[in-house]
Amino acid sequence: MSKQHVLYQGAEAKIIQSIYLGYNVVKKQRVHKRYRINEIDNYLIQTRTKEEAKVMGLARTIGVSVPIIYDVDLQKGCITFEYVQGERVKDIFDNLSKEKKRWLCELIGKQIGLLHNAEIIHGDLTTSNMILSEEKVYFIDFGLSEINAEIEARGVDLHLLMEAMESTHSKYTSFFRFVWEGYCETYTEDTKLVKQKIDDIIKRGRYR
After folding, report:
1. pLDDT tens readout for residues 106-129
2. Of 16, 36, 66, 96, which is the most exposed, with the fewest CB atoms less than 10 Å away?
3. pLDDT-based confidence at 206, cuts 50/70/90?
4. Which homologous superfamily is 87-206 in?
5. Is residue 53 predicted with pLDDT exceeding 70?
6. CA–CA gap between residue 145 and residue 148 (Å, rounded)
7. Given the DSSP bridges, would you call strands 5-9 and 23-30 parallel, antiparallel or unpaired?
């Protein structure tokens, strides 16, 4: 058995670095919840594992950079995918040059636009879930993703990233406008409707 190294232990899943068929991989192993009835727990784990793998596969087919999936074990609730050698955007963003920050934000926006064209909502768009590798931004952790055609869902997706940038990269919140510019380059529907929805969400938070 190959050596395994736990990279992250969360409430929903354990992220493990390992070797699979000679490849350096990451395994996302969903964890069982003792408080749930066993049959329901197994059903939820299998369903969520299947949906996450499905969305990741779809994202790759439309040109979004996501890790290659090598294996999906529904019984174990485990997805095995390639280990992307790179750096988390969260860890490097603040130290990049202004030009590099702008380029990166535009690239992120373009990727989100492609996702939304295919009605894919990531559900957890933060710089922690993005890896910069060889001039590409890989999106990871599709555990909260869904297929949703509603403008509301697209606005929420982008607003989440806006809030993430405000909290994690507070000195550079203005760079979200470059995310938006990139988004407008690839998003093929009416960007005005998405922008209006983002503004509505901001107002809701302000007057909550």
Report:
1. 999 999 999 999 999 999 999 999
2. 36
3. low
4. Transferase(Phosphotransferase) domain 1 (1.10.510.10)
5. yes
6. 9
7. unpaired
Give me the pLDDT at residue 140, please.
96
Common-topology check for domains 5-82 and 87-206: no
Q: In whole angstroms, how far apart are CA 26 and each of 14, 82, 149?
A: 10, 6, 30
- Cα separation, 183 vs 205, in Å, equals 23
Verify whether residue 94 is a known catalytic residue. Answer: no
Architecture of the CATH domain 5-82: 2-Layer Sandwich (3.30)
Q: Where are the domains of the chain?
A: 5-82, 87-206
Q: Which of 41, 71, 94, 124 is catalytic?
A: 124
Phi-psi region for residue 97, left (φ > 0), alpha (ψ -120 to 50) or beta? beta
The whole-angstrom separation of Cα 135 and Cα 103 is 10
- Write phi, then psi, for 187 (nearest 5 degrees): -70, 125
Distance CA(137)–CA(88), nearest Å, equals 9
**Residue 137 is encoded by which pair of tokens?**
């931004």
What number is the average pLDDT over the span 21-42? 92
